[in-house]
Write a structure and sequence with these properties.
Blueprint: H1 11-27, E1 37-43, H2 64-71, E2 74-80, H3 85-94, E3 105-106, E4 113-114, H4 124-129, E5 133-140, E6 154-159, E7 174-178, E8 183-186, H5 190-203, E9 213-218, H6 256-259, E10 265-266, E11 272-274, E12 277-278, H7 279-288, H8 290-307, E13 313-319, E14 324-325, E15 331-333, H9 339-342, E16 343-349, E17 358-360, E18 364-365, H10 369-377, H11 391-395, E19 405-409, E20 426-427, E21 430-431, E22 433-437, E23 441-446, E24 453-456, H12 474-490
Parallel strand pairs: 1-9, 1-13, 2-17, 2-18, 5-6, 5-9
Antiparallel strand pairs: 2-16, 3-4, 6-7, 7-8, 10-11, 11-12, 13-16, 14-15, 19-22, 20-21, 22-23, 23-24
Helix pairs in contact: 2-8, 5-8
Length: 507
């Protein structure tokens, strides 16, 4: 068959065609500063106190790579992402507080859980539809359904709900599921493997390089059993720290439930021990596990620098929540509303888009991270979320804003299942609660009949002096109580008008 000859285009038309082709090439080459890659590094049970960039870290702590990331961006003094692993992750997948995560529930043997994706959609699905490659690497802890093929294009995960027999295999011997298919046992130290998988993905292996990516890198460290890599087991030898003031009861002014927290014993010299380990041994081992994370952050950021993609990548570093070691009597426990238990590190970095070396004193919440991700991607929110876009604080960290940081903790119960509060609403010896704080004060409303808590974090950062039981702070108490109720109403918490009365003990 003869091919019909087409007339040759004019020089002007040819230049136009070439310009169009060039524009098309630019639009499909991957990330740009206005539509960046998004790297979300998410650690587990990782207290802000373990990062040397934070003023509250012990003086012997060394995390040079995470510190460098903070110097290249904005570090938030306080973030409250959730009370424990699963609700924190549910919040970061939905943009909702725990009481707004519909259909999520526990089942079978812990940590087995389930949800209905029609009632509880995860926002990475929206990013897939809008041209991003979505990827998740590491720990999965929100239902047996990991969402591969619906929410994620790329997924290498330890599906903890599906394999409860390995639920404590945080460092070795993890069943890793590859892209929703085969599952094989990972024998290597998990922190190191997750890092290498992340870099391999960022290099372009296993993804469409013509699209920007969203990568949620979920380290299992430094969760119990707090197992450091062999190369780090001698770190921090000979260091010492002061024992927390309220490691043993009584705790004057605290609620009744807090008087019962007593997870340490006294040795012959009156020093705290647990099992065969001293308080210092536990704290040292916990911090040793952070070192591999810091090394992973260095490798990842070095790759972004060397590849030239640093300027096109929005980097977020945080954890699901913190972890108390000794404070208020806890040993390796999150859940409670104290900063020692739940306060997370939070760092944002993107050269050219975010100022460098800044610290934001305004407290924020995990629900705020999701709208911020959408804003940096230039995307509209697909549904109403509980959080607020942090971009104004990232642009001007010193200015602050009037919004409080808020969160609810309702144990292992989610969504409308929290509408009716159980009579004994407790989880890990801690009552359900609603917590709210501004730059200075924190208020905690228990969802059992017990004392409220109010702390001046400027004068009392260790949260030892409960102002809720002091008459001179009654006006402040009423103001913070009303603010918490207003936030519950704003976010349509079904239990807001069904909360049990609080105890009164005003001195």
């Amino acid at each position: 068959m003869a091919i019909e000859q087409q007339p040759r285009p004019s020089r002007r038309k040819l230049l136009g065609l070439l310009a169009g082709a060039a524009a098309s090439a630019v639009s499909t080459k991957g990330a740009t500063p206005d539509r960046p890659n998004i790297l979300f590094i998410y650690t587990d049970d990782h207290s802000y106190r373990t990062i040397s960039a934070y003023e509250e870290a012990y003086p012997w702590v060394r995390t040079p790579a995470i510190d460098k990331l903070a110097k290249e961006g904005v570090r938030f003094r306080a973030s409250y992402n959730g009370a424990w692993c699963m609700p924190s992750r549910a919040t970061l997948l939905t943009g909702h507080y725990q009481h707004g995560v519909e259909s999520m529930s526990m089942q079978g043997t812990y940590p087995d859980s389930t949800y209905d994706p029609a009632k509880c959609p995860f926002w990475p699905k929206v990013f897939r539809q809008r041209g991003y490659v979505t990827a998740q690497i590491g720990k999965w802890h929100t239902g047996q359904d990991t969402g591969y093929g619906r929410d994620w294009d790329f997924q290498l995960v330890w599906n903890r709900p599906k394999y409860p027999d390995t639920s404590q295999n945080y460092y070795y011997h993890q069943p890793i599921t590859y892209h929703g298919g085969k599952t094989e046992m990972l024998e290597r130290y998990s922190t190191d493997q997750y890092t290498d998988w992340a870099i391999d993905f960022m290099k372009g292996n296993g993804r469409d390089k013509s699209k920007p990516y969203y990568l949620w890198l979920c380290y299992g460290a430094v969760h119990s059993p707090y197992q450091p890599a062999e190369r780090h087991k001698k770190e921090y030898a000979g260091v010492d720290i002061e024992t927390p003031k309220d490691i043993f009861p009584p705790r004057p002014g605290k609620p009744d439930w807090a008087q019962k927290i007593n997870m340490w014993e006294k040795d012959a010299n009156g020093r705290p021990v647990s099992g065969k380990k001293s308080f210092m041994d536990w704290v040292r081992q916990y911090h040793q596990g952070v070192n591999a994370i810091d090394e992973g952050v260095k490798k990842i950021m070095d790759f972004l620098d060397q590849s030239g993609e640093r300027k096109n990548t929005f980097v977020i570093f945080t954890s699901d929540q913190g972890l108390a070691f000794g404070q208020h009597g806890f040993r390796g426990v999150k859940v409670a509303a104290y900063d020692a238990n739940i306060r997370s590190p939070l760092i944002f970095s993107m050269p050219g888009k975010i100022p460098q070396g800044k610290v934001c004193k305004t407290p924020v919440a995990g629900v705020d991270i999701v709208p911020t991700i959408f804003a940096f991607a230039g995307e509209k929110l697909p549904w109403t979320m509980h959080g607020r876009d942090l971009t104004p604080l990232l642009k001007n960290p010193e200015k602050g804003w009037s919004y409080p940081a808020f969160m609810t903790a309702t144990g292992q119960t989610y969504g409308s299942d929290t509408d009716n509060i159980p009579k004994n609403a407790m989880h890990n010896q801690v009552p359900w609660y609603a917590m709210i704080r501004d730059e200075r004060y924190k208020y905690v409303r228990p969802l059992i009949e017990d004392l409220e808590e109010l702390y001046d974090l400027e004068k009392d950062p260790d949260e030892l002096d409960n102002l809720a039981v002091k008459s001179e702070h009654r006006d402040r108490l009423k103001k913070m109580r009303a603010a918490a109720i207003a936030e519950l109403r704003r976010t349509k918490a079904g239990f807001v008008d069904r909360m049990p009365p609080v105890k009164e003990r005003i001195g």
